[in-house]
Structures are given as structure tokens and as C-alpha cells.
Amino acid sequence: MTTSSVLLRQVRPYGTGEPVDVLIADGVIAEIGRPDAPAGAEVIDGDGQILLPGFVDLHTHLREPGREDAETIETGSAAAALGGYTAVFAMANTDPVADNAVITDYVWRRGQEVGLVDVHPVGAVTVGLAGERLAEMGTMANSAARVRMFSDDGHCVFDPLVMRRALEYSTALGVVVAQHAEDPRLTVGAQAHEGERAARLGYPGWPASAEESIVARDCVLARHAGARLHICHVSAAGTVDVLRWAKELGTAVSAEVTPHHLLLTDERLSTFDPVNKVNPPLRSEADVQRMRQALADGVIDCVATDHAPHAPQDKDCEWAAARPGMLGLQTALSVVVETMVRPGLLDWRGVARVLSERPAQIAGLPDQGRPLAEGEPANLVLVDPDTEWTVQGSELASRARNTPYEGLRLPAVVSATLLRGRITSREGKLV
After folding, report:
1. Long-range contacts of 206-211 (CB under 8 A, 24+ apart)
2. Which residues bind substrate (predicted)?
């Protein structure tokens, strides 16, 4: 049901202070305090629950076009809305690759048709993700989709000259280049985090230096180009040191960490279950602790899901043949609460920063991640912090089922999501 106005009763913005009522009209926050409900308004009783700006995911794989057997824009949008998201960025490694305006405009328009979340296509940096020739960045940036982020995610833009040109070109377009930091020469045949556990289990090791070295190189290139660089899915403790150094020099670099790199470690490899195979790999407990502290300190700017659905045949096989990736949209909030809020590393204001505000700023979205104030766009999420839930892949909205959290009990549930004042999910169901 959609109405022109919604009244949220007894909610706590950012989880602080006494509960207030929030009136939403014509897509914006009209009044905060004790407003009366207009005739015909949809009323949601918050009962002291936490109100936050809607979440923004800079790293989502929606698989459409080309792999609709794993996910579609419709099913991925449903998972996003149920997870509290109001905007997601769909990565370019589709089939065909989103390296031209025809594909990026299709993704944008399809997202608008579904209407559950704003779907922003990410354009490829190079043609076919091959790392050789720059894609039509200018055409995509000026198309109907207004592409704001470019990435060859799934592949590293490895040639330093190609990466330098992409960064230089991005400055004129006012866009950000997001790098999948992995030196492919160091990860040939790699299957798991290089360490004692991989050696014991017989997995070829994936060194942290493969990530750290590319991040260091690209920070230097970005600083000289005066460009904005974003580092995808940071996983290694050493990368945090590189990011801190680059930021101290004034480099315009931002970085994301995934929920699974905040919670899971390479201890999971001992099960030999390919659901735990991901790129970059699950790393050590020491790496996980550094990710958490870096996120709390702001060295890592935000959380991005790297939601990577796969069809059963791509996961239900031997480890070496399995595709890397995990579901993440519906579990991200709960993992952040488990790893960051419960230990006291973030408060709810911090959750808004890492899941909403900083991602929106990095991507340049003027109507997302906004303050909870009168006159601001009503892209919102209502969170029940006191309820726990058990993850079951069969009950998730994604077409795929490859969640690493199967059977795990997690804190916090999304009670409602609103996109420009329109309720898109409520009490675990799409509206």
C-alpha cells in the first residue's frame, strides 16, 4: 500500500533521545515531534525502534543481464529493500559487460521499473573487463543512467598505464574509479588466504601483498592525477596501513570492507564448503580485528556488501571449481551490529555513517545518506535492535542461496524501509 503521507510513531532517530513521531509527506520528512496523522496516512508504530537514513551499497552484483539464473534486478532489489537499502550500485561484470551506455541505461531503467530501490549501474573501466582499452566512460557518465562509478570488479585494472589514464579521465568527468585490488601474478592458482591453515589443508596460498601492492600503486597514481579512487573489499591488515599513509598525504582515496570480512575468518576453510570461497579470501582473525578497528577509526570509510549470488551449479561443486562470492544484502546490517555495535566500536550514529552517509558521499548521491531532519528526502530505514533472527537461505529474497550465515542467529531486524517516503518493505515483507 502506498500513500502520500506516512507517520512513524515513537521512533528514535540515530537511536538516541526520547522517541518522537516523524511525519513524511510528498517524499520528504515534513515534521519531527508530535505531528498529527493526516487523513489517510499510513501509520507505523515504531515502539522506540531506531530510525536511520536508508542504506547505500556501493558494491552489489545483480547479474542481469546474462546470469538471471543467479539473480535479477527484481530479486536483488527485493533483497536490498528487505535489508534496509534505498540505493545500490550494480557492478559491471554482467554478460554482456556494462562497458557502454546501452547496457548501463538498461540496468538503470530496469531498476526504475522495479522501483524497490535506486539501482545505479557501475560502468566498466575497460572494454570487456580485459584491462586493455578504456571503455566509453564519458558516454556512460553523460547517459540517462548518469554513471558515477567505474570498476572492473572481479578483475584488477592491472596495467598501470591504463589505470593512470582512467584516473586522469575520471577527473574531467567528476566520477570515481573503484579498484579490485589484486595483483594477478601473485594469485595464480590461489585458493585461500596464505597462511598456516591453507598450507595444512593443501590450498595454494593467496598472499595479502597481492592486495597491498596494488592499493599502494593506485594511491600514488590517484594522488598525482588529482583523482578520486575507491578501494573495493579491503581484507588485509597491511592495506589499512597503506590507506592511512595515503590519506595522511591528502590522497582522495576511500575504501570499503564487506560484512563477511568483518565477521568470518579462514578457520571456515576446514569445512571445505565452497560457500566460504570469496575474492578476496577470508583471512586471519588478526586481519578481521584490523578491519573492525579501521572501520571504527574511519581509515576504512564504509561497509559494502559485495552481494554475489551464484546459481547452484557454480557453488555446489569442488572448492577449486566453485565461483567466489556470498550473499550479503539482507544480512549486512545484522553483521555490522554483531561485529561493531555489540563490541562498542560503533554506536547507531556510526552505523548511519558507514552504511549510509559515507557511501552516498563517495558515490555523489545528493538525496541519499541525508540527515534525519525536516525537509530532507525520506529515504529511511526503521530498525528493531532488540530482535534476533536465524538466517535461512531458503527464506531470503535473492534467487540464489549461497549465504555463509546459514543457521546463524544474528541481532537486529529491518522493520521498514522507505524510498522517497514510499514504504518498500515492512515487517520482513515487500510492500
Report:
1. 206/280, 206/281, 208/235, 208/236, 208/237, 208/238, 208/239, 208/283, 208/287, 209/183, 209/238, 210/181, 210/182, 210/183, 210/186, 211/181, 211/182, 211/183, 211/235, 211/236, 211/238, 211/239, 211/280
2. 61-63, 93, 279, 310, 324-325
**Architecture of the domain spanning 6-50+376-398+407-430:** Roll (2.30)
Residue 12: Cβ within 10 Å count: 20
Quote the pTM value: 0.97
155 is in an annotated binding site: no
As annotated, the active-site residues are 306
Query: Per-residue pLDDT tens for 254-311?
Result: 999 999 999 999 999 999 999 999 999 999 999 999 999 999 999 999 999 999 999 9
Ligand-binding site membership of 276 (annotated): no
261 is in an annotated binding site: no
The CA distances from residue 263 to 160, 334, 408, in Å, are: 33, 11, 12
Domain boundaries, the chain: 6-50+376-398+407-430, 53-363
Instruction: Please tell me whether 100 is known to bind a ligand.
Output: no
What's the pLDDT tens digit per position in 115-147?
Answer: 999 999 999 999 999 999 999 999 999 999 999
Residue recorded with cell 601492492: 213
53-363 has which fold?
Answer: TIM Barrel (3.20.20)
Looking up cell 566500536 gives 345
| Distance between CA atoms of residues 301 and 303, nearest Å | 7
pLDDT of residue 4: 79
Residue 379 is assigned to a ligand binding site: no
Length of the chain counted residue by residue: 431
